[in-house]
Design goal:
It contains five helices and six strands. The protein is an alpha+beta fold. It folds into two domains: 46 residues; 133 residues. A hairpin with a 2-residue loop joins strand 4 and strand 5. It is globular, with a radius of gyration of 28 Å.
Length: 189
């Protein structure tokens, strides 16, 4: 009787092992097929590949009487997908003249205020369109921000609601121009 039970237990273990092997094989095949035919995993990879690894550099110069200083993501210099993001959004945040040095550049307090508004605007813009933040530049009493977009319409509509918003900490203007070769920002790279 004991011998029969041991044989049955051994047979049950073998059957369970075979079932586990089949499940493992099925999971392996499903993973292989998902990888080969690009289900969810390739979508994540595509999203990750839309944005290059950041490589910011500080740029500064004095082209005339007033200097400029800014930072730009040099990873976009040789970016392969420029032709997919042909709309250049330039936002110009007006700086408070009382918080500027004689050369038109902001003091630390003004810089922090302008950067905060920049961050708030960009956070909302990213929700509306694929937005590539190229960089920003302090120059002649303004903070100019450069962003490339896939679809400008929703961004335009959003910015229209913000431009004259009550309680806005700093005034700003913006323009959206078609720039398929990214010539507007080419000099900053």
């Amino acid at each position: 009787m004991i011998h029969v039970q041991l044989v049955q237990i051994r047979e049950c273990k073998e059957v369970n092992q075979q079932k586990r092997n089949k499940k493992t094989l099925i999971i392996f095949i499903m993973g292989f097929l998902l990888t080969m035919f690009g289900c969810e995993r390739s979508d994540k990879k595509k999203i990750k590949n839309i944005f290059p690894t950041e490589s910011f550099s500080v740029v500064q110069a004095k082209p005339g009487d007033n200097p400029f200083i800014g930072s730009f993501n040099r990873a976009y210099k040789n970016y392969d997908n420029k032709s997919k993001y042909i709309w250049c959004l330039k936002i110009a945040i007006a700086l408070d003249l009382e918080n500027l040095y004689e050369n038109g550049l902001p003091n630390n307090e003004e810089s922090a205020i302008a950067n905060k508004l920049e961050d708030e605007l960009f956070a909302e813009i990213k929700k509306l369109a694929t937005a590539h933040y190229i960089g920003h530049l302090f120059y002649d009493t303004f903070l100019d921000i450069y962003i490339y977009l896939s679809e400008p319409e929703k961004v335009h509509q959003y910015l229209q609601t913000q431009i004259n918003r009550e309680g806005l900490i700093r005034g700003f203007s913006y323009e959206i121009n078609q720039d398929p070769k990214w010539k507007i920002v080419d000099g900053f790279f």
